[in-house]
Specification:
The complex is a heterodimer of chains A (259) and B (263). Chain A has 259 residues and is α/β, with parallel strands linked by helices. Chain A has nine helices and ten strands. In chain A, the strands form two sheets. A six-stranded mixed β-sheet of chain A has the order 6-7-8-3-9-10. In chain A, strands 2-1-4-5 form a four-stranded antiparallel β-sheet, covered by helices on one side. Chain B is mostly helical. Chain B has nine helices and no strands. Chain B is elongated. Classes of the chains: A alpha/beta (259), B mainly alpha (263).
Chain lengths: 259, 263
Amino acid sequence: MKTDSEIIITLSDVWKSFGTQTVLKGINLSVIDGKTTIIVGPSGQGKSLILKHILGLIKPDRGQVLFEGKDINAIQKKELNEIRTKIGVLFQNAALFDSMTVFDNVALPLREKTVASESEVREVVDEKLSLMDLRGSNDKYPAQLSGGMKKRVGLARALVLNPRIVFFDEPTTGLDVALSNEIYRFFFKTQEKLKYTAVIVSHDVPKIFKLADYVALISDGVIQDCLSPEDFQMSSNPIIKNFVEATMGTIYSSEAMEV
Amino acid sequence: MLNFVEKLGAYVLYYVNEAGRMGIFLFFSLLNIIKPPYNKIASVLKQIYVIGSLSVFVIIFTGAFTGMVLGLQGYNTLTKFGAEGLLGSAVALSLIRELGPVLSALMVTGRAGSAICAEIGIMRISEQIDALECMAIDPYKFIMAPKFIAGIISMPLLTALFDVIGIFGGYAVGVGLLGGNAGAFFSSMQSDVEFIDVYMGFVKSVCFGLLIVWLCAAKGYYVHLERKGGFGAEGVSNVTTSAVVLTSVSILVMDYFITSMLI
C-alpha cells in the first residue's frame, strides 16, 4: 500500500486540452519515493505531456500537480526553481545544447546553479562522464555523437546535481536493441549508485517492465491503473489486458486465463 | 458570414495574444538584465562578437557604398545650385541623422537578427529551452539578457562605423573622383553637424538595437505558438522570415516616431 509519506509526486484530476482536443481527461497518479514508475501507453495518448505537467513546463486546465505536497502551479517561481534543482530530466532527443561541447553541457547546471569552482566542476563532470563511459568525449559537440552517446551525455547532465528524482522521456526511442540495453544498463548502474526516484515514459514494452516497481497505463486520457509489473500483466481491467496482449503476445493472456 | 466573423475574431485574438506575450517577453528580458545575479562578462562578450563584430564587414561595405552614392548624387545636385561646397554637410547629416542608424539596423536585422531568431527557434523545438527550465536556469537570464545587452552596445558602435565609413565614401567620390573641394567638404560638415544630430542618431541606434533583439528573439522563443504551425525546420524557417520582415518594418516605423520626437 502507498502511504502519503512515501508519495513524492501526485497528479490529481489533471485535465489538458489543445484547441478542441482534450488529451488528458482527469489524470490521477502517485509517484512513490525511491521507486521506479513507468508510464506506458499507445503513442499520442499524452505520456510525455504528463511529464511536462510534473515538470511545470505546462499548466493544467484543471487539477493539481503536487511535488512533496506543494502545488507546483500555485507556488512562486523561486520555490519552483528550488524544486527543479532536485530534478533531473533525460529528454526524448537528449536536448543537449548543440553549440556547447559535451563537457560544457554537463557542467552547465554546476556552473549556473552552484558556487563550485572550475576545478570542482571539472572533477564532478569527469566523474559523471566516466560513470557513463564517456571519457575522451569532453571536447566533442553533440552533432559529433551517436544517438546512444547523446543519451548518455543527457543522462550525465541530468545526474550532475545528484537529483532526488529523474524523469526519462522515451529513453530508448530511436536506438537499436544493443544501444537500448546499454541505456538500461546505465540506468541500473546510476540508480543503484545515486538512489534516485525514477519516472520513465516509454513504449518499450515488455523490456521496460524489468526496470519497473510500478507500471501505469494511460489510455483514453486517463491512467487506467498503476500496478506492480506482475499485477499489471495479470490485471482484469479490459484496457490493460488488451494492451498487455497487444504488446506482449498471447502467452500472457493464456497465463492470465490459467490464473 | 458567421464563419467570417469567427475567423476575424480568431485572427484578432491571436494578434492581441501575440502582442501580449511579446510585451511580457520584453519585460522579463529587461528585468533579467538589471536583476542580480548578473550575466557573466564572457557570455555578453560572446554575443557582442556574434551581433557586433561579425556584422562589421557588411556595415563597412554598405556604409562605403551608401556614402559613395550620396557623394555622387549630392555633388551632381548641389552643382546645379552652385552649392557643391555643402556636400560634406549634406552627406554627413544624411548619414548621421537617418541613413546610418536605419541602414545599419536593417543590415544587422538581416545578418544577426535572423540568426538570433533561428538559433532560439531551434532551441525551442529541440527542447533545449525546456531543458534549461528543468535545470532551474532562467532562459531570459541565460539566453536573452546577454543578447539584449549586446544589441544595445553593438548597434551604436556599428552605426558610428557606418557613419564614418559613409562620410569617407562620400569624400572619396565627391572630392577624390569628382574634384570637389576637400576643405569645403570638411568645414561645411564641421559647421552644420550639431550635437542634436549625433544625439538623434545615437538614440535611434540604441532603440533599433533593442528592437532587433526583442522582435527576433521573441519570435524564435514563441515559434511553437505561431498561428500557421511552428514546428520543425519549416516552422523555424517561416518564423525567421516573418521576424526579419516584422523587424525591418518596425525599424522604419520607429524611425519616423523617434525623428518626430527629436527633431
